[in-house]
Amino acid sequence: MERPSIRSYSIRGTRITEAQRAAKRALQEIHGIPVANNKLDLRAIFPAAEKIIMEIGFGMGEATAIIAQQSPHNGYIAVDLHPPGIGKLLSRIEDGGIKNLKVIEEDVHVVLRYMIHDASLDGVHLYFPDPWPKVKHHKRRIVNSGFLDLVATKLKPGGYIHCATDWVPYAISMEEVFSQSEKFSGGVIDKPDWRPVTRFEGQGLDKDHRVTDLLYFRKQ
Ligand SMILES: C[S@@+](CC[C@H](N)C(=O)[O-])C[C@H]1O[C@@H](n2cnc3c(N)ncnc32)[C@H](O)[C@@H]1O
User: Fold this and answer.
1) pLDDT in tens, 1-56
2) Does residue 85 sit within a domain?
3) Which of 100, 109, 116, 205 has the fewest CB within 10 Å, making it most exposed?
């Protein structure tokens, strides 16, 4: 399975605590989905789910766990490759008795391309993706035309992608990239009450960053 040549994530800051390592060891088998070159049967994983939603880049997973608990009728697949966060979210699932949330440790480009059937997701959450503020790093920003094509293929017609960022230039760039795609319609929205403040967002708010939420729908 081929990973993208340009990484949208940083491999720094991956120091893992003993508790997070232990959680990964004990719980990944229970609450994780192994990476494989096989499309997942999402209905078998979440037989009663009304909607199946993927969160991309959940970080330490605090908002992810709250959203899954708030909406037990939906099934959630959380994708990241930051080992401490994987361990932390696995612990949250176990401690909270959360039944509708599974974790995949891999680059989301690989997960979407090789593990997700076309037109099978009802929604995608992308909260506070790495902003890559330096111009020379803009190519690392996950929201680009290739990513939107991939997401559009995996969303059901009418399915949504909800993004949030605390970096205004990235919000403007996201709007531009979406507006250039024929596959999406939508735009900036007020922050929905149900979206918890994430850890990364809290750090941005402490620095007086302005947060932008964007909601787009896969055209029919
Ligand atoms: C800035 S953090 C935000 C985390 C969290 N959403 C929050 O708001 O606190 C971005 C996260 O996206 C993850 N990430 C970046 N590129 C990714 C990719 N290609 N596949 C999966 N996760 C990715 C990083 O590992 C990191 O945990």
Assistant:
1) 888 889 999 877 678 999 999 999 999 999 999 999 999 999 999 999 999 999 99
2) yes
3) 205
The residues, ordered by sequence, that sit 6+ positions from 152 with a Cβ below 8 Å of its Cβ are 181, 183, 184, 218
Tell me which amino acid residue 159 is.
G
- Helix 83-96 / helix 18-31 crossing angle, nearest 10 deg: 60
- Give pTM, 2 decimals: 0.97
Domain annotation covers residue 24 = no
Domain that holds residue 173: 38-218
Secondary element (H or E) of residue 184: strand 184-189
Q: What is the CATH number of the domain that holds 44?
A: 3.40.50.150
* Residue 130 alpha carbon to ligand 1 centre in Å: 6
Inside any domain, residue 102: yes
